[in-house]
Design brief:
Shape: globular
Helix content: 40-55%
CATH class: Alpha Beta
CATH topology: Rossmann fold
Largest sheet: 5 strands, parallel
Number of domains: 1
Bound molecules: adenosine-5'-diphosphate, zinc ion
CATH superfamily: P-loop containing nucleotide triphosphate hydrolases
CATH architecture: 3-Layer(aba) Sandwich
Oligomer: single chain
Radius of gyration: 16 Å
Strand order of the largest sheet: 2-3-1-4-8
Strand content: 15-25%
Number of helices: 9
Length: 216
């Protein structure tokens, strides 16, 4: 199964992706996680991406498309994948259409996770992320068992530098302008499935699971 996860920053894509990938045996590809890895390793791509990420702007399409292209050719994506945080512009979506054709694959569904803006700010400003595995927590809604430490891998939790209120508001504005048009793009292809992203994490997952079970 091949899926795209669409939704504003903080909608819960990463949180839900973990359950989806576990149950449907596919691999998550988060462009944000991948870019943060490149930054940590100090690669050319990481250096180029840095200034955009720190401002909450999008990294240029050509860099992202090249990164996705080389990633999706790896064997671990052969069984299917969930794209989290990609595509984010119409140009990226068009490039992905071409790529998936070249790979001889088809896209099964685009999940659109919907959460009101004010809740997104609350979710993102109290988000904590594991330095080692990238898993996210929330200080109030989804705290780790032990403060400051990842439940899964024992890694240190930190606050992403772009999870401050000012940058968050900019990221939300960028989403409205550059990414939201993708919803219609996939609606027209008959691939979009809207999911109410408010409420308990496990209830949201049940909604997603019901949609996906009808797809396999
Ligand atoms: P995204 O990947 O879409 O940016 P995350 O999965 O990182 O979003 O979630 C953003 C923040 O919101 C995290 O702090 C996460 O723990 C929290 N969160 C996720 N789902 C919910 C939910 N249903 N209710 C409240 N907070 C949530
Ligand atoms: P969130 O899920 O909280 O929105 P991400 O981790 O997906 O955040 O993205 C963090 C930053 O990485 C974005 O603000 C942007 O600068 C960059 N980024 C990630 N994915 C893309 C993409 N597909 N196109 C352009 N920039 C991206
Ligand atoms: Zn971890």
């Amino acid at each position: 199964m091949r899926l795209i996860f669409l939704g504003p920053p903080g909608a819960g894509k990463g949180t839900q992706a973990e359950f989806i990938c576990r149950d449907f045996n596919i691999k998550q590809l988060s462009t944000g996680d991948l870019l943060r890895y490149h930054r940590k390793e100090g690669t050319e791509l990481g250096k180029k991406a840095q200034e955009f990420m720190d401002k909450g702007e999008l990294v240029p399409d050509s860099l992202i498309i090249d990164m996705i292209r080389s990633e999706l050719k790896k064997p671990e994506y052969q069984n299917g994948y969930l794209l989290d945080g990609f595509p984010r512009t119409i140009a990226q979506a068009e490039a992905f259409d071409k790529l998936i054709n070249e790979l001889g694959q088809t896209l099964n569904a685009v999940l659109v996770l919907e959460v009101p803006t004010e809740e997104l700010v609350t979710r993102l400003t109290a988000r904590r992320t594991c330095r080692v595995c990238g898993k996210t927590y929330h200080l109030v809604y989804n705290p780790p068992k032990q403060e400051g430490i990842c439940d899964v891998c024992g890694g240190e939790l930190y606050q992403r530098s772009d999870d401050n209120e000012e940058t968050v508001r900019n990221r939300l504005a960028v989403y409205e302008k550059q990414t939201k048009p993708l919803i219609e793009y996939y609606e027209l292809k008959g691939l979009a499935y809207h999911i109410d992203g408010k409420g308990k994490i496990e209830d949201i997952y049940s909604r997603i699971k019901e949609i996906l079970q009808n797809k396999t």
